[in-house]
Please model this.
Amino acid sequence: MSEAAIDAAELAAALIRRPSVTPKDEGALDVVAAALEELGFTCHRLAFGEGGERVQNLYARYGTGRPNFCFAGHTDVVPAGAPEAWSFAPFAAALRDGALCGRGAVDMKGAIAAFITAVQAFVEERGQDFAGSISLLITGDEEGEAINGTRKVLEWLEEHGERLDACLVGEPTSAQSLGDMIKIGRRGSLTGRLTVHGIQGHTAYPHLADNAAHRLVTMLHVLTTAELDCGSAHFPPSTLQVSTIDIGNPASNVVPATARAVFNIRFNDCWTSQNLTEWLVRRLDGVGGRYTLDVTVSGDSFLVPPGAVSGCLVAAIREITAREPELSTTGGTSDARFIQAYCPVVEFGLVGATMHKVDEQVELTDLADLSAIYRRFLDFYFDHS
Ligand SMILES: [Zn+2]
Model:
C-alpha cells in the first residue's frame, strides 16, 4: 500500500467517526479544514440558514492564479437507521477484510479523503512551479434540503469574485468496479402532487355523485401509459413512476369526493421542467373534471458534452485502472446540477453499491486508486490548460 493510501484511509476514518448526519456537522468540516490548512490552503467557513440550524460549508483554495480547479463534495451523510441492522458500528470506522466500514465510507467521505491526499501529492511534487489554483467546495447540506449548501456557496463565491474554471464532484459514480462509470450530466427530477375533486355521494346513486377515484385512476393511466420520449444521445428515456395513491375512504358505500396521488418523473434533455409541466396539464385536461396539480422541481436535466475535463478524467482512469469508463447520465440528482451553471463539471468517485445502505464500506485498494486517479487527473488538467 502506498503512503497516500494510508493517509486517505486514516483521513476517511477520522471523517466517518464524526456522525455528520445531515444537516449536522459534528466536527467533520474541522477535520477537512485542518488537513487543508496543513497543505497551505486558505479556508473559508461559510454557514447559511436560520438560527441554530445553520448549515456548515467550507471553501478552501490553494494558490491565487488561474485556472482554478475545484473538487466538490459533501461531508453530510444519510441516517444509519437501526444500528442493529449493521454488522459493525456505523460511525466507528472499523477495518474489515481490507475495507473501511461505516456510514459515509463511499458517499462520500472516502472521496473527500482522496481529494486531499491527491492534492497533497500534487503540491509536494509540483507546488514550486505551479501557477494555477486548486480549491475544495465541501458542503454539509447535500443529502438533505440542499438549500443552504453548494448553491449558497456558489453565490458567495460569485459575490467575492472567486471564479471556478472547472469542477469534479466526487459522488460515488462507479457502478461495479472503480473507474467503470463517470457522469457527464444528470436527469431532472419533477414531483407532481395531483388532487382530483369530485362530488361525494351514495354508491347506490352514482348519477348523483362524481367519483374522484375513477377520474384519478384514468388520469394516472393516461400518464403511466404515455411514452415521454425515446431518450437522446447521452440520456435514457424519461420515466414516470407513481409514488402513492391516497383516498382514505373507510366507507364502502360512499363515493369519495377527493382522491390524491403523487408521482415522480426523471426526465432527460428532451424536456425542461416548464414544458414537461405543460405536457402534464394537457394530458390531465384531456381527461377533464376538476383537479389541482402541484409541481416541485428539484433540478432540471443538464449535460456537459464530452470535452477537456472529462477527457482528462478518462485518461487518468485508464492509466490507473486500465478501465474505459462509460460516460453516463443515470442515477439521481447531485450538487453538480448547481455547479454546471458556473463551469464545466464532471462527476467521478467510488463504487456506489453500498451507498445509503447498511454496512456501507469501501475497499482500501479502491481508496488508494481513487486518490491516484485524482492525482493524475490534476496533472492532465493543468498540463492541458
Ligand atoms: Zn453523495
Remarks:
- The longest helix spans residues 105-126.
